[in-house]
Amino acid sequence: MSDHEMMEKEEIFSKVLRAGRRTYFFDVRATKAGDYYLTITESKKFTNDDGSFHYKKHKIYLYKEDFAGFTEILNEMTNYIVEEKGEEVISERHQKDYQKSYDSDSSTNNDQKVSAESFTDVSFDDI
Question: pLDDT at position 7, please?
Answer without folding.
Answer: 47
